[in-house]
Amino acid sequence: MRLAFIMSELGSGLRRNLTMVISVILVTFVSLTFVGAAGVLQLQIGQLKGFWYDKVQVTVYLCTDVPSNTNCVAGPVTDEQKNHIQELLGSAAVKPYVEKWTFETQEEALTHFKEQFASSPMADSVEAGNLPSSFRIKLTDPEKYQIINETFAATPGVDSVVDQRKVLEPLFSMMNIATWVAVFVAGLMILCAALLIATTIRLSAQSRDKEIGIMRLVGASKTVIQLPFVLEGVIAATIGAVLASGAVWAMVTFFMNGYLANGNSGMPMISPNHALKIYPVLILIGIVLAGISSAVSLRKNLKV
């Protein structure tokens, strides 16, 4: 009987306060869309960092079938030349400056490329022969790049020596700033949503003072009186969170994975599958936000 009464009051409240319910849906939708956008930004930053992480080092690119400088006019790098480069890395003149190094074959470079650019149309058009094999060197002191460059730049079989650190430091700085901005905006929007939901639910409850008074007189508990209002907020916020999830999905699918991926083939973009983890988080935030905001607002503003 009590459950039936609560559901009856809930249905009545949703019908009578349709305008307020719609306002909660819209507030939650806008707020959680910002939160979802911040989450997408975090995933995109992680994607970029994951791709460029191995680049924050000195990379010695080896010659391929297509010569790009005088070191490569004799053709692609030979096994003897690779062995010579390895010997140089272990020599007394170079080893003190090298923390560790790895060798990436053309096949490994292709695999890595396809993983990072899975959403790009160019992923299927690149073959292993188009990508150079390379020695990736992590230095004990990044400032000693010039020593590595002087040692390997003119070595037979070496196409180029690139210090990715100098290129990527500004990019990572911008990413960090974007991260903090996204977190700040998301936190501000959640706070605004909580205040607006609390105000809306409180006004809805105050508009039904007579009903609440009657419920008090017949001995209804505080929980029974407040629960329909809390459920109103939770249902409305859940609908708003679902709509926000849809907006985030559209953003990732049509804007990032579609427009940006096609227009910027050199940058790895997240796919819709990467964003799947955001949707349940948005719905959970909406439910918890509405539940807590409604309960606190009713407890402080209604004498029940």
From TrEMBL:
Per the database record, which ranges form the FtsX extracellular domain?
56-161
Regions that span the bilayer: 21-45, 177-203, 224-256, 276-298
Q: Which top-rank group of organisms is this from?
A: Bacteria
Note whether Repressor occurs among the keywords.
Answer: no
A Gene Ontology biological process in which this protein takes part is: cell division
Name assigned to this protein: Cell division protein FtsX
Gene3D superfamilies per the UniProt record, alphabetical: 3.30.70.3040
For this UniProt record, the keywords arranged alphabetically read as follows: Cell cycle, Cell division, Cell membrane, Membrane, Transmembrane, Transmembrane helix
